[in-house]
Structure formats: structure tokens, C-alpha cells
């Protein structure tokens, strides 16, 4: 048990202490008077680590395979080199200019590449690497062309010349600052947003994220460290040549990212250290390096995709469990957490039609969902219920008709904007991103509430802290409401189906939407869970929210709905109160086929429906 | 589970003791990945007869069919087809054994023509295209409209016609067991009647038919045996002759 | 005219890469980043067979096809099949391609090797322009291959099955189609064709280990212009890229040829993301 105790002590130390220790060690390293080759090795490793961290941000977190980091690295290096030749030797100015140059390259290439998804970005960014020599030779008089840019004057800081030791400290400091910033982004809601987006663009837009903008921000931000690395590289040897920016380097950086773990912050340093160390070892490795990089990618990809950092995480989790540090098991059902008043919105769909190919799915469907009421949408399979929800959310373009929220027309095909208007939803199959906690899943629903910039996240401004506190607070409130407070720190994907559905409700509700769309929220739940869910839905309704419920459980609908709309073959067959619908012979016929016997419903259901009406 | 009315619990084969069932599913448990949707489902299908599987949405009908077809993993229970266990046979291999499954939602190959779709239906026969072309006549006889539309992309057809293509594809494989998942779904009532009439006619050739339906009345009309599932478990299983009150079947389907 | 021939024959090389991408894409919806490296290996094998071993051309073609088919089969087994999602397949196939590049460098060195075409390199005069026999061969090969593939996909049962698979693989399984086997076969066939292509492109591009990345990229541009899954589109796209590249090099300078192709790529992605012959698909939830 000593190992367990030892582990407990170790885990009691805040997690930022370890990278901080490494940082301090690197900062005091010159005091130990190491050989030049050692500090140079560290410098090269950190420069590569910067590039790799940019890859991690775009590949690991934003989920975009972009391998053009090397082109941005080149942009940074040449920018720094050229302005140094022009007399601007201050390292701060150079870093700024190089970072900006890389950012511009990232944005310009990211916009078209991101439009078509993964392959296009991979290719456009890869293409950039191919272009580097051409662009360098086009601007030969500034860049030195094939010969390289030599004779760069030494870097200065605020007018003082930097000695090699000073420069070493500069490299270490820049790296530390960037990694701190990187960590802060990942720990903020932007980091969660990346995870959400990676799981499902549909989900991301349903909580109001612009898929394109989130992707672009990840990809473009990932360009910055590559630019910084370029500026540092240019000042390291005071010489920039094309050899440093070839495919060889690009694959090496990608291999380092995969090796260290793309979805990690500090894995980049580890991966860079291994790749850099191996490359420096011998000439024979140089010869075999492509084969090894290729194998790293191949094996790393197949084992996907945690890399060394992933293995470490699994190991930590296992030790945590052994030491009893893991969270408690789930508890049952929520108690009476009060819900804030929600200003529901009036959602109206008028004469909406939709066809897929030659298949008319919805014809002239109208619907009116009022605040503080549950409007249920029922109908047999293929009657168009989910299609109608998707039209409301903007996933499909409608062919005809109008949908308005509080009188404002909802335009089509701008899902995240519709979400921002106050339309939240759950999905038939719960969409839960892997790798984040239950609380973070709920908090991701607040992405659009109180905007927060990258800069605020990096600097951890007071406003950022306040928002983060509120994110957490509101998420916890929602978790109490649905009875998941005890599993708040559990990894969300490990939850069973019933809890996942509750989790989706909590996520949808945390943004205080005007309209809540529940798509078969009760399917797959056992009776106890259905009851809990019904209770939660009632309380959301009583708080004033407009609820649209698509549901097959007829009993649940009758007991819960204030208004029922029955769809059949894409048209509204009937609408009215639960007792109207329960007594409408056409409805059951539509569900179960024509009948000539009188339809008789259970007394209990009718009385339940009647009770609903009087409340 | 509610106290559902049981007309005849358990699996019954009393309907026609002369023939052995072609497919016997016992205590099947299945689902999607680690999510379990079906807990304990048993049913049988006989040559020349129609077994109807009823139940509301999400009750596990489709999941059970998918398990028989080999699309979903089996967590427990047995599936015996023609005296052998199905589990060791891959999904595409089951087609060659005579198990044809028509999925819900008219999943035809939309960009390919009707003729190409039907030819693909006969893929498991391992014939050359020339020989397969000769088989098309059978299907055109059953669905003459498909002959007229044979060079149109399947995606351009109406819902009912696409359903015919899907059934025609399944029949091209010369199946012994035909599983139909909501063939009437999303179709107008008149088309439903037509589809049901065709299905009913098919059993005359000795085909064993397993039909999943939401339209209780229409399905029971053509059924020889009715099995009702709710929340992944069998609540009613009975030869159609022993069903005296359709309302009770409907109640069972509604989960009451 | 000579310039146009040069553009068309270069374009044919890219079209051939795009054909390889498309076969795999249609059969398994995945993108094979190592396609161009397969062709590179084909070119090297052709060199070894031709120059080093002095084998007759027809034997060399057969050798290249078989060797590359085996390599492609290994590729499918180690880099595609064990990986579930297409995003990760990009990484693993890139990794495999990198390994091939590295191995080619170790085996054949990094100097470009001149691969003769059926023994001879002579120029022909046609419609007032001059081109080499291997250039004509490339253009003919790319056009014929596309026509053959199109015929195959319409007329042969396995061709129909591959197209069916690309639309709905579950429905394909239910028609008795062994989806995995066919996807594997498609990979093997791309390997076979890549071997053949390598033999044809070697005289044009030389056999050189760095061939892979440039070809991979231009082939992708051809694909993007033509639209994913469209064989005719890939052919047209390839010719467009080749012509643009040759004209840019001639009139603007060689350092502008890649840049011009890149601009075309960006324009296509911005203006017509589905390519000229691609189909749009509505998003589904």
C-alpha cells in the first residue's frame, strides 16, 4: 500500500507543478554550465515543440489534419530574417511580426481548406509546404533563394545585444509563455468547444457554435507558435535556408505530435524531444528517419490516438482508482432544485413543406408552440417529426413555409445562429463528446452565453474567471435538476443511456433557451427514468420554457403534453388537447391501422389527460 | 413491465404442426455496440406462412431483425435457421443461405438504375450478369411498373415504387426467409393495401415471411402467427386463429 | 501545340493519381494518401526491371504491377483496415507513404533515375506539335483507363457492387456483397494499376523518391476539380492541372507553376466545393 500512499501524495500536488518544474529547470540550466551542444539541443527541441504544439491545437483539438505548420514556420523564419536584415533586430518585434505572418498564412489557407472538410485542409496545408521553395525563389532578392538567407544580424532586446545564453533564455521563456497560453485555452470553454466540435459538428452548431469559425480559430491559432518558432530559428544560427522547411521536417513534426499525443498540451514537448534527439544521434538515422517517421505515424495512428500522453492518462486514472481518488458512483434522481424563470418564446411554423429528392416528407405543416406549455409531436415512423425539428433547427432548408420565433423569422441553414436565438435541442441518439467530464458537457451548452475571447482565456482575466465560475455554477445547478450532480466529475461517455439523455437535457437547458426541442428523449429509458424525465420536463415548462416534445411513448405524451400535434405521412392529421387526441379515432387508426371497432382507451389514460387539462 | 394482457405467452408452434419452423429465435438479446435494446425475444417463422412482429417504436423489432440478418451483435440466446446456428455466418453469407432482409426506409441504391438495383439483389447467386438478366423477368412479373422504370435511377421513383424495388431486390436472391421491416411505412393507405396483398401472395410459393409492422390491422390481416414485443421482451405470441380480440393486441402494442 | 501536349501528358499523370484516389474512395470512402507513393514504387520497379535487369518491356510491366499490388495489399491490411475513421486513415496512409518514400531512398538513392519507355525515347510530330511516344502513351492510358473503369462499373456485377457499396454499405451487405473483401480488392486493383501507371509515368517524371508528395498533391487538385468519386472529373481535372502548370511555367516562370495550381485549387474549393462533376448532398442529422 506504500505505492498507493506515495501516489496519493504525488496527486495532491497541483498538476501545473510538473511542467512548471521543467520550465524552471530549463531556465536555470545555463547556471550548470552545460556544453554548447546540450543547450543547442534544448533550443532545437523547444523550437520543434512549438511547431508540434500548433499541430496539436489544430489536429488534436480542432480535429483538422493540417500539416502545413512547416510553411508557417518558414513564414515566421523568413519574416524575422528579412526584417532583421532591414535593421529591426529586436527579438520582441521579430516574434510579433513572425507570429502575425504565420497567422495570416494560417487564415488565408484555412478558409478555403476548411470549407470542404478534412481532406481538403490536409491537402491545401500540405500544398503550402510544396510552395515554400517557389515563393522563396520568387522573392529571391529578399530571401536569398536556394542559397539561403545569411548574414542576419544578432538579435537584440530593447537595444541590448543578446548573448548565446540570453538567447537560450529567450527561447525557453517564449516556449513557457506559449505553453501556458495553450494550456489556458484548452482549460477554457474554447478547449471544450474543440472537443464538442470534434465529436459532432451537428452537436456543435446546436449549442450555437459556428463550426467554421471554431475550426478556423483552432487552425489559425495553431499557426502562431509555428511563427514564433520560425523567428527563434532564424536567430539561432542567424541563417535561414530552405532545407529546414521541407516535407521531411513536416512529417517529423507530425510524427512528434502523434508520438507525444495529439490531444495533449505537454505531449508536444515529449514528442519533439524524442524526434529531435533521434535526429541528432547519427547520420545513419538521417538516412532511416523517413522510414521511422512513417512508422511512428502508422503505428501511432493505428493505436490512436493518445500517444504517450494518452498512455500516461490511462495509467494515472488506473492509479487514481486504486488509491480511491476517483469520483463516487452515480446516485438516483434529482431533488427539487429551483429553476430560474425562463422567458419562453412563441414558436410558429406556418405551411412548412420539405421534400428529399422525389420524396415529399412534409406537406403544409403548421405548428404553434407557446411558452410555458409542452407541445408534443407524435406520429408513426416516417411521418416527418424529426424532419420538422431539423427544419426548425436549420439543419435542412425548407422548400416552402415560414418558421418564426417570437415573430422573428428563422432563416434556413444557419444552425448556430438559430441556436443563438434561443432554440436548444436534444438528439435521438445522445451526442456526448469523449474525454470531457459531465460538468464540462453541460457547461459546453453555455458557449454562446456571455462571449469570451481567446485573449481573455489566455490571460485568465477577471471577467474570464467570473464567466468560468458562472459556467460551473449553472452547470452544477442543471446537474442537480436532472439528478446527475454526483457524477459531475465522471467522464461523460461512460454514463449509461438513461443518464446520457438527462445529460443532454441539462446541456440544452443551461443556456436558458426560449424553446427546448426534445427528440425522443424517453426512448430507451426504463420506467423509473421516464418518470424522472417527465418530472424534469414539467418543471422546465413551469419555469416558462416553450417545449416541443417528439415522443413515441403515447402514455407519456398524454400525461405530459398540453397540446398534441399528430403528424401522418407528412401532414397534420389532428391537433388538440390530450383528451381530444385520445378520443380521436383517426389517431389510433393511423398508428395501428384502420379499425371498425370503436376505439376505447384505458380510463386511466383519459383521466390522466383530463387532469392535465385542468392544471 | 406492466401487467400486459397475454393471450398466449411464450412461443407457440401449434398453428401448423405439419411443418417445422425455418427460423427459430430463442431468448435473443441484442443491441447496438454495448447498448442493449432487446433483452429476451423469441419467435419462429415457418415456410409458407407469415409471422408478424408487432410493437411500438423502440420496442426492439428492427433490432431483432438486424440481429437475424447479422448486422447487430448477439449478446445472448440462439438463432437456428434450417437446422443450423446462424451466428457463425457473416451477414453477407446469410444472404447466400436464403435469408433476405428488406430494411425500413426503402434503402435502395439511389443513383443506380432500377435494373442495376435488381441485378445487385441477385449478387449472392454468384451468376454472371447475363444469367442474372434472365432472372429479372420474375420480378417484373410481380411488379410490372418496375419494368417500365427499369432504366430510371431508383432514387427518382415514388416511395411505393422504391419499396417494390427493395422487395424485388430481396426476391432476386431466391430467398427462403424474407424479412420485411415496415414495408408500409410512409406509404398512402391504398399503396399499403397493395403491398400487403403482394406480401400475402408471396407465401404461396413456400417462402417463410417475417413481417414487422406498426399497422396492426393490416398486418394481422395477412398474418398466420403474431408476436408482440414491448421494451425488448415478448408480451404476446399466438397463432392468428387464437386471437379473438384485436383490441388487446393493440393495447399490447401501445404498451398497456 | 507542343505546349498543349506537354500539359496534357503531365495532366495525364495527375489524372492517373486521381483515378487511384477515386477507386479507393468509391469502394471504401477513404482517402489513400499513399497512392502517389505506390506509383513511385511502380516507376522504380520499372527502372530496375528495365535498366538493371534488362528484362523485356512486357515482363517489366507485369513485374511492376504485381510488386505494387502486393505493396497495396499490405497497405490495406496495416494502414486502412485496422483504423476505423477516415480522418485517422489519412495519418496512417500518410505514414505508410512516408515509409515507402524512405525505403525508396534507401534502396534506389535520391538521384532521379531515367526510366526508358519501351526501350525508346523518340519524339513524334502530331497536328503541328511534337511530343514523345511515352507522352502519347500516358494520355492514351489515362483516357482508356477511365473508359474501362466506367464500363466496368456499369456492366460488371462486381463494378455494380462497388458503386452500390459507396452509396450504402449496410444495404450492400444485405444483398450478399462481401463489403470488406471488395474494399480490399479495390485496394489491390489500385496497386495493380499503380504499377502499370508507374511504368508509364517513369519516363515522364523520372523515378525519384521525392516524386510522391508532389504527385499526391497535384492528383488531389485534379480530384478536387473533378469532384470526389467522378472518374471523368478526375481526368478533366488532371488535364486542367497539367495545362495550367505547363502554361504558367512557360509564360510566368517555373517558380509560378505550383503557385498557379494552388490558386486553381483555392478557387475551386471556394467557388465549387463539390467539384465540376461532384454531387451535392444534404446534411443529415
Describe this structure in words.
The complex is a heterotrimer of chains A (615), B (256) and C (285). Helices cover 58% and strands 11% of the residues of chain A. The radius of gyration of chain A is 29 Å and the shape is elongated. Helices cover 34% and strands 25% of the residues of chain B. The longest helix of chain B is centred in the middle third of the chain and has 14 residues, at 129-142. With 285 residues, chain C is an all-alpha fold. Chain C has 11 helices and 2 strands. In chain C, helix 3 (57-80) crosses helix 8 and helix 9 runs parallel beside helix 11 (257-271). The longest helix of chain C has 27 residues, at 2-28. The radius of gyration of chain C is 18 Å and the shape is globular. The chains are: A alpha/beta (615), B alpha/beta (256), C mainly alpha (285).
Features:
heterotrimer; B: 256 residues; alpha/beta; six-stranded mixed beta sheet; four-stranded antiparallel beta sheet; 9 helices; 10 strands; 34% helix; globular; C: 285 residues; mainly alpha; two-stranded antiparallel sheet; disordered C terminus
Instruction: State the end-to-end CA separation of chain B.
Output: 9 Å
Major sheet attributes of chain B: 6 strands, mixed
Ranges of chain B where pLDDT stays below 50 over 5 or more residues in a row are 1-17
Q: What is the beta-strand fraction of chain B?
A: 15-25%
Q: Order of SSEs of chain B, N→C?
A: EEEHEEHEHHHHEHEHEEH
Largest sheet of chain C: 2 strands, antiparallel
Q: Tally the beta strands of chain C.
A: 2
Helix content range of chain B: 25-40%
Short description:
The complex is a heterotrimer of chains A (615), B (256) and C (285). Chain B is α/β, with parallel strands linked by helices and 256 residues long.
Give the helix/strand layout.
The complex is a heterotrimer of chains A (615), B (256) and C (285).
Chain A: H1 2-12, H2 17-28, H3 36-61, H4 69-85, H5 91-115, H6 118-138, H7 140-143, E1 149-150, E2 156-157, E3 160-161, H8 164-187, H9 189-199, H10 201-206, H11 211-221, H12 223-237, E4 239-240, H13 247-260, H14 267-281, H15 283-303, H16 307-322, E5 347-356, E6 359-369, E7 374-378, H17 385-393, E8 400-405, E9 408-409, H18 415-421, E10 423-425, H19 438-443, H20 454-459, H21 462-482, H22 497-509, E11 515-519, H23 527-542, E12 546-550, H24 554-560, E13 563-568, E14 571-576, H25 578-582, H26 585-592, H27 603-614
Parallel strand pairs in A: 7-12, 7-13, 10-11, 11-12
Antiparallel strand pairs in A: 1-4, 2-3, 5-6, 5-8, 8-9, 13-14
Chain B: E1 23-32, E2 35-45, E3 50-54, H1 61-69, E4 74-81, E5 84-85, H2 91-97, E6 99-102, H3 114-121, H4 129-142, H5 144-148, H6 159-172, E7 177-181, H7 189-202, E8 208-212, H8 216-222, E9 225-230, E10 233-239, H9 246-253
Parallel strand pairs in B: 3-8, 3-9, 6-7, 7-8
Antiparallel strand pairs in B: 1-2, 1-4, 4-5, 9-10
Helix pairs in contact in B: 3-6, 4-6
Chain C: H1 2-28, H2 35-52, H3 57-80, H4 86-108, E1 123-126, E2 129-132, H5 133-155, H6 157-167, H7 169-174, H8 179-205, H9 211-226, H10 231-251, H11 257-271
Amino acid at each position: 500500500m506504500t505505492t498507493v500512499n506515495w501516489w496519493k501524495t504525488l496527486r495532491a500536488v497541483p498538476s501545473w507543478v510538473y511542467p512548471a518544474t521543467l520550465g524552471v529547470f530549463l531556465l536555470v540550466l545555463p547556471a550548470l554550465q552545460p556544453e554548447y551542444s546540450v543547450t543547442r539541443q534544448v533550443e532545437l527541441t523547444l523550437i520543434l515543440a512549438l511547431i508540434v504544439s500548433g499541430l496539436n491545437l489544430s489536429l488534436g483539438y480542432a480535429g483538422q489534419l493540417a500539416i502545413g505548420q512547416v510553411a508557417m514556420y518558414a513564414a515566421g523564419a523568413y519574416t524575422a530574417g528579412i526584417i532583421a536584415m532591414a535593421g529591426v533586430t529586436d527579438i520582441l518585434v521579430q516574434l510579433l511580426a513572425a507570429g502575425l505572418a504565420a497567422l495570416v498564412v494560417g487564415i488565408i489557407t484555412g478558409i478555403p481548406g476548411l470549407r470542404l472538410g478534412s481532406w481538403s485542409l490536409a491537402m491545401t496545408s500540405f500544398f503550402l509546404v510544396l510552395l515554400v521553395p517557389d515563393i522563396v525563389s520568387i522573392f529571391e532578392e529578399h530571401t536569398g533563394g536556394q542559397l539561403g538567407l545569411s548574414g542576419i544580424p544578432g538579435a537584440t532586446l530593447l537595444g541590448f545585444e543578446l548573448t548565446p545564453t540570453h538567447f537560450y533564455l529567450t527561447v525557453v521563456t517564449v516556449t513557457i509563455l506559449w505553453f501556458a497560453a495553450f494550456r489556458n485555452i484548452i482549460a477554457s470553454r474554447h478547449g471544450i468547444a474543440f472537443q464538442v466540435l470534434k465529436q459532432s459538428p451537428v452537436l456543435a452548431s446546436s449549442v450555437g457554435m459556428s463550426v467554421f469559425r471554431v475550426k478556423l480559430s483552432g487552425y489559425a491559432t495553431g499557426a502562431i507558435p509555428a511563427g514564433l518558432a520560425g523567428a527563434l530559428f532564424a536567430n539561432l544560427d542567424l541563417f535561414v535556408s530552405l532545407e529546414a522547411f521541407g516535407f521531411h521536417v513536416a512529417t517529423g513534426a507530425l510524427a512528434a505530435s502523434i508520438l507525444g499525443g495529439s490531444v495533449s498540451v505537454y505531449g508536444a514537448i515529449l514528442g519533439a524531444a524524442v524526434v529531435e534527439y533521434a535526429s541528432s544521434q547519427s547520420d545513419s538515422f538521417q538516412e532511416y528517419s523517413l522510414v521511422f517517421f512513417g512508422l511512428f505515424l502508422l503505428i501511432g495512428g493505428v493505436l490512436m490516438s493518445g500517444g504517450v500522453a494518452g498512455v500516461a492518462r490511462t495509467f494515472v486514472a488506473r492509479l487514481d482508482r486504486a488509491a480511491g481518488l476517483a469520483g463516487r458512483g452515480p446516485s438516483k434522481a434529482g431533488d427539487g432544485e429551483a429553476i430560474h424563470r425562463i422567458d419562453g418564446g412563441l414558436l410558429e411554423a406556418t405551411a412548412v413543406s420539405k421534400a428529399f429528392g422525389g420524396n415529399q416528407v412534409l406537406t403544409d405543416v403548421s405548428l404553434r408552440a407557446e411558452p410555458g406549455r409542452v407541445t408534443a409531436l407524435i406520429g408513426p415512423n416516417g411521418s416527418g417529426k424529426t424532419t420538422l425539428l431539423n427544419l426548425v433547427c436549420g439543419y435542412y432548408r425548407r422548400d416552402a413555409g415560414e418558421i418564426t420565433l417570437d415573430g422573428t423569422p428563422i432563416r434556413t441553414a444557419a444552425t448556430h445562429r438559430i441556436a443563438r436565438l434561443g432554440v436548444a435541442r436534444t438528439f435521438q441518439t445522445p451526442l456526448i463528446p469523449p474525454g470531457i467530464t459531465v460538468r464540462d458537457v453541460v457547461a459546453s451548452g453555455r458557449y454562446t452565453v456571455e462571449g469570451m475571447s481567446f485573449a481573455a482565456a489566455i490571460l485568465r482575466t477577471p471577467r474570464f474567471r467570473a464567466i468560468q465560475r458562472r459556467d460551473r455554477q449553472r452547470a452544477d445547478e442543471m446537474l442537480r435538476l436532472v439528478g446527475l450532480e454526483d457524477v459531475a466529475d465522471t467522464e461523460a461517455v461512460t454514463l449509461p443511456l438513461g443518464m446520457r439523455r438527462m445529460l443532454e437535457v441539462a446541456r440544452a437547458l443551461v443556456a436558458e433557451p426560449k424553446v427546448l426541442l426534445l427528440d425522443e428523449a424517453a426512448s430507451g429509458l426504463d420506467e423509473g427514468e421516464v418518470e424522472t424525465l417527465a418530472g424534469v420536463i414539467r418543471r422546465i415548462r413551469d419555469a416558462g420554457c416553450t417545449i416541443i416534445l417528439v415522443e413515441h411513448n403515447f402514455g407519456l405524451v398524454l400525461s405530459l403534453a398540453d397540446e398534441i400535434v399528430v403528424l401522418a405521412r407528412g401532414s397534420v392529421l389532428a391537433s388538440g388537447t390530450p383528451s381530444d387526441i385520445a378520443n380521436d379515432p383517426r389517431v389510433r387508426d393511423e398508428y395501428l391501422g384502420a379499425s371498425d371497432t370503436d376505439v376505447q382507451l384505458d380510463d386511466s389514460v383519459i383521466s390522466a389527460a383530463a387532469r392535465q387539462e385542468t392544471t | 413491465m406492466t401487467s400486459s394482457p397475454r393471450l398466449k405467452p411464450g412461443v407457440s408452434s401449434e398453428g401448423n404442426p405439419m411443418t417445422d419452423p425455418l427460423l427459430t429465435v430463442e431468448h435473443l438479446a441484442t443491441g447496438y455496440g454495448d447498448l442493449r435494446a432487446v433483452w429476451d425475444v423469441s419467435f419462429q417463422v415457418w415456410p409458407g406462412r407469415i409471422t408478424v412482429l408487432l410493437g411500438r417504436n423502440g420496442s426492439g423489432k428492427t433490432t431483432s431483425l438486424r440481429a437475424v440478418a447479422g448486422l447487430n451483435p448477439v449478446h445472448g440466446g440462439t438463432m437456428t435457421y434450417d437446422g443450423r446456428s446462424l451466428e457463425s455466418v457473416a451477414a453477407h453469407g446469410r444472404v447466400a443461405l436464403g435469408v433476405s432482409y428488406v430494411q425500413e426506409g426503402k434503402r435502395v441504391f439511389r443513383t443506380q438504375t432500377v435494373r442495376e438495383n435488381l441485378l445487385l439483389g441477385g449478387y449472392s447467386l454468384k451468376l454472371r450478369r447475363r444469367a442474372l438478366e434472365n432472372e429479372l423477368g420474375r420480378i417484373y412479373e410481380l411488379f410490372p411498373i418496375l419494368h417500365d422504370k427499369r432504366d430510371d435511377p431508383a432514387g427518382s421513383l415514388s416511395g411505393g415504387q422504391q419499396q417494390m424495388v427493395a422487395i424485388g431486390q430481396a426476391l432476386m436472391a431466391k430467398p427462403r426467409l424474407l424479412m420485411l421491416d415496415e414495408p408500409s411505412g410512409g406509404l398512402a393507405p391504398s399503396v399499403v393495401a397493395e403491398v400487403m396483398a403482394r406480401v400475402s401472395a408471396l407465401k404461396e410459393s413456400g417462402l417463410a415471411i417475417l413481417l414487422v409492422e406498426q399497422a396492426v390491422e393490416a398486418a394481422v390481416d395477412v398474418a398466420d402467427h403474431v408476436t408482440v414485443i414491448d421494451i425488448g421482451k415478448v408480451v404476446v405470441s399466438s397463432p392468428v386463429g387464437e386471437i379473438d380480440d384485436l383490441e388487446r393486441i393493440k393495447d399490447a402494442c401501445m404498451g398497456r | 501545340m507542343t505546349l498543349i501536349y506537354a500539359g496534357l501528358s503531365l495532366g495525364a499523370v495527375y489524372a492517373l493519381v486521381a483515378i487511384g484516389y477515386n477507386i479507393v474512395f468509391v469502394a471504401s470512402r477513404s482517402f489513400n494518401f499513399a497512392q502517389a507513393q505506390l506509383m513511385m514504387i511502380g516507376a522504380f520497379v520499372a527502372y530496375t526491371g528495365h535498366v538493371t535487369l534488362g528484362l523485356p518491356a512486357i515482363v517489366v510491366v507485369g513485374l511492376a504491377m504485381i510488386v505494387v499490388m502486393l505493396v497495396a495489399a499490405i497497405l490495406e491490411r496495416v494502414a486502412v483496415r485496422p483504423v476505423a475513421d477516415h480522418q485517422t486513415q489519412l495519418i496512417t496512409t500518410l505514414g505508410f507513404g512516408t515509409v515507402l518514400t524512405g525505403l525508396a531512398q534507401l534502396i534506389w538513392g535520391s538521384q532521379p533515375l531515367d526510366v526508358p519507355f519501351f526501350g525508346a525515347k523518340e519524339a513524334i510530330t502530331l497536328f503541328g506539335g511534337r511530343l514523345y511516344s511515352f507522352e502519347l502513351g500516358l494520355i492514351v492510358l489515362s483516357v482508356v483507363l477511365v473508359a474501362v473503369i466506367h464500363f466496368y462499373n456499369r456492366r460488371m456485377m462486381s463494378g455494380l457492387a462497388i458503386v452500390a457499396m459507396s452509396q450504402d454499405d449496410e444495404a450492400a451487405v444485405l444483398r450478399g456483397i462481401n463489403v470488406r473483401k471488395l474494399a480490399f480488392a479495390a485496394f489491390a486493383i489500385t496497386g495493380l494499376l499503380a504499377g502499370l501507371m508507374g511504368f508509364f509515368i517513369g519516363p515522364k517524371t523520372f523515378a525519384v523518391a521525392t516524386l510522391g508528395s508532389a504527385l499526391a498533391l497535384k492528383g488531389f487538385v485534379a480530384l478536387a476539380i473533378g469532384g470526389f468519386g467522378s472518374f471523368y472529373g478526375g481526368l478533366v481535372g488532371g488535364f486542367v492541372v497539367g495545362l495550367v502548370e505547363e502554361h504558367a511555367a512557360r509564360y510566368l516562370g517555373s517558380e509560378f507553376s505550383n503557385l498557379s495550381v494552388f490558386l486553381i485549387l483555392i478557387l475551386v474549393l471556394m467557388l465549387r466545393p463539390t467539384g465540376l462533376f461532384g454531387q451535392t448532398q444534404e446534411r443529415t442529422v
